[in-house]
User: Which sequence fits this backbone?
């Protein structure tokens, strides 16, 4: 997977644009800045946007090219992010460190997904929030008619609400919904898509 993402991010321009994901922007604009973790942050559009709002941003991704592009975007916006190279399983942040976690199209192989979600929950402070958008399993049907809508072709890497409730059982959801949206995010996220979005707060006692 690293080779795939390095190839995609090595191209001129930003594969998913330079502006943040709409749902992520809407959610983070309403929060008081603190410390945020951005897993699978790719070319950095979401992490860099958070930094422009005054957040202290930690990010990681498997792609060296993604980090290069993210650092360039941060420089363009005159901010800094602490971006590491690696998978979820190789990251080691202190427990209860982050006020927020942004999970935006952070699709992982099925055998890694739930373990990563549980690991991220450990890093989130009690009372901290998660902002989440990712492709629903129902998105597979959209890929047949709109190849530019993006997303993994393996349905096991896509999300469903039942599994999200299990993986994030320590979250009190204020919003959790499957919805059809019109993506306009660079070359590879364009057109109708079926996604799951949620916003929720980590319970004070689990």
Assistant:
């Amino acid at each position: 997977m690293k080779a795939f993402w390095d190839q995609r991010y090595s191209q001129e321009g930003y594969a998913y644009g330079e502006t943040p994901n709409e749902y992520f922007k809407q959610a983070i604009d309403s929060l008081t800045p603190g410390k945020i973790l951005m897993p699978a942050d790719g070319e950095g559009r979401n992490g860099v946007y958070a930094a422009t709002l005054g957040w202290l941003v930690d990010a990681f991704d498997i792609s060296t090219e993604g980090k290069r592009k993210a650092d360039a975007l941060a420089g363009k916006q005159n901010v800094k992010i602490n971006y590491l190279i690696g998978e979820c399983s190789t990251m080691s942040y202190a427990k209860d460190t982050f006020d927020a976690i942004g999970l935006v199209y952070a699709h992982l192989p099925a055998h890694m997904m739930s373990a990563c979600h549980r690991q991220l929950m450990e890093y989130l402070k009690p009372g901290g929030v998660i902002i989440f958008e990712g492709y629903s399993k129902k998105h597979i049907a959209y890929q047949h008619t709109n190849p530019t809508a993006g997303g993994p072709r393996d349905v096991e890497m896509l999300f469903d609400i039942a599994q999200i409730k299990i993986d994030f059982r320590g979250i009190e959801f204020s919003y959790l919904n499957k919805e059809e949206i019109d993506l306009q995010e660079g070359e590879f996220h364009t057109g109708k898509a079926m996604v799951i979005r949620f916003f929720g707060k980590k319970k004070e006692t689990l």
